[in-house]
Structure formats: C-alpha cells, structure tokens
C-alpha cells in the first residue's frame, strides 16, 4: 500500500495568460502608437475634382477595417473620450500631408463636441478653420442640440465648418439639421444603395437635394459603389459624393498626394 504522502500529486493544467481586459487593451492602444488615420476622398460630382476627405481611424496590427469594436471596447472601459481625442489628434497630424485645398471631415460624438478640450485641440493644429469640418455622427437629444449649437458658435465664427451625418436615418434628424444649419449634410450608404432602382430612395434624395439647397448646405452622397448609383445621384442635382467607386480610404500619403490631380 502506498503511503498517502508518497502518492503522486495531480498536476495542474498548464496555465494560460488571462485575456486582456478592455481597459488594458485600450491603454495599450493609447500609449503604443497604434492609431493610424485613413482618408477617403470626397468628390465634386460636377467636375470630378476631389474637394475634401473624411478621416477614418485605423489600428496598427488590426487586420480588419472596422474600428467600431475598438470604440465600443473603449466605451465599456470608460475610455471612449480618451480614444476619440487620440483619433482626432492622429487625424489632425496626418492632415498636414494632404493637398492644401482639401477640407477634412472629422467624426465627433456629441460628448466630445461639447468637451471644453476640443477648441484648444483644433486651435493647436496646423489645419486651418476653413478646412476643418466637425462631422456629427450620432443622433442628438434636444438638450444636446441646444448645447452644441451654443458651444460651436464661436468656432463657426472662426470658420470651422459643421457637418451632419446619417441625414434621414433617425426620426428627428431633419428637424435637428434645420436647427443646426450645417455646412455639409451627408446621406449614408443605407439610403444610397439601390437609389437607381428604388423610387423611395430616389424620392428621398430628391427631397434632400432641395432641402440642402434651401439651407445653403453641400449635400454629400456616401457609399456610392456603382456607376448606376452615381448617375442617379447626379441626376438629382447632388453635387458631392464619396464611396468605393470614387476612392477607398487609404493610409498612404502617396495616394493622398494624387487627389489634387483628380
């Protein structure tokens, strides 16, 4: 009989390192220089010239093109503000390599738009106010609407432009656009896809073209992917567009340099 002390002890299974918490991973991103900026051209549909770009955040070493999961993880870790400001700093830094006639649309949430650090960040950048577009990308509450109009008034007097994304995609978006009176209004891919064959999308685009014209705003059709969609958008009098057909987002300054030639 084997003495209890002489029995072999069961071996623990090999330990595996714990998965990084969202806070730890986002912290690594913020401190590790992992943020990149891609720009996508925005084209004047009457001349074919590139007039502006939209900035998109990319993450070094991430094989996907969708950054939403990182921003969602940052929100879970209560680091959403920090990541959004880091993305803005990256975009403003990269913008110095763009052709000087292009405006730059910077995505901002209502919370960051209202943050007192935003004006200082913009003023400290090399991007002039007339080339800076703050593009609101989320639905607003009525309280946010009033506050944003007030906070942005001094910046807009300096020449900073205001853009509103996802026009028509939520119930109060048209009313909010009317009150904010943005310089740029964007119709997203969800309403542009199939605009050449879907009469309801076509009618909405026609109505938005007239609405933007009365406001004195530039209407941008996003997500143009086919020649038929481009022809339909042009037929409605929409004068600006972006999408894979016109140019994909790219992180390459060599690509950016050619946009003044389009």
TrEMBL record:
Q: Which SMART domains does the protein's record reference?
A: EAL
Q: List the biased-composition ranges (Pro residues).
A: 10-20
Q: List each copy of the EAL domain by range.
A: 19-262
A UniProt-annotated Pfam family: EAL
Record's SUPFAM superfamilies?
A: EAL domain-like
Q: Name one GO molecular function term.
A: cyclic-guanylate-specific phosphodiesterase activity
Disordered as annotated region, ranges: 1-22
Which top-rank group of organisms is this from? Bacteria
- According to UniProt, the name of this protein is EAL domain-containing protein
Q: Which organism is it from?
A: Arthrobacter oryzae
Lineage of source species: Bacteria, Bacillati, Actinomycetota, Actinomycetes, Micrococcales
